[in-house]
Design a protein that fits this description.
- Helices cover about 0% and strands about 55% of the residues.
- The protein has no helices and eleven strands.
- It is globular, with a radius of gyration of 13 Å.
- It starts with a strand and ends with a strand.
Length: about 120
């Protein structure tokens, strides 16, 4: 059974940091790119970041470039999203899922259950 378990969300003040974790099981980790999308109330979902476990290539949405860093620990089958300089507009439920990196964009699935990130002003 494919499982992606997210953790690390919470409440933080603007300018603060959080690190999200996504622990994967039930599939061959190296065969997939794993990433995060987010969805805020009343807004469309936004693909945030994606990393390929096999070659380390990454994708970032323009809205998070320079502030968020995605990484992968293949030994632990875990993907991390380090979020720095958080803004109130980063408030959303963050979901971990499979993804595909293209030349200038990425496509995201819908596997995870989500973790809430709230940034207060």
């Amino acid at each position: 059974e494919v499982q992606l378990v997210e953790s690390g969300g919470g409440l933080v003040q603007a300018g603060g940091s959080l690190r999200l974790s996504c622990a994967a099981s039930g599939f061959t980790f190296d065969d997939y790119a794993i990433g995060w999308f987010r969805q805020a109330p009343g807004k469309e979902r936004e693909g945030v970041s994606c990393i390929s476990s096999s070659d380390g290539s990454t994708y970032y949405a323009d809205s998070v470039k320079g502030r968020f860093t995605i990484s992968s620990d293949n030994a632990k089958n875990t993907v991390y999203l380090q979020m720095n300089s958080l803004k109130p507009e980063d408030t959303a439920v963050y979901y971990c899922t499979d993804c595909i990196i293209h030349a200038s964009r990425a496509d995201f699935g819908s596997w995870g259950q989500g973790t809430q990130v709230t940034v207060s002003s």
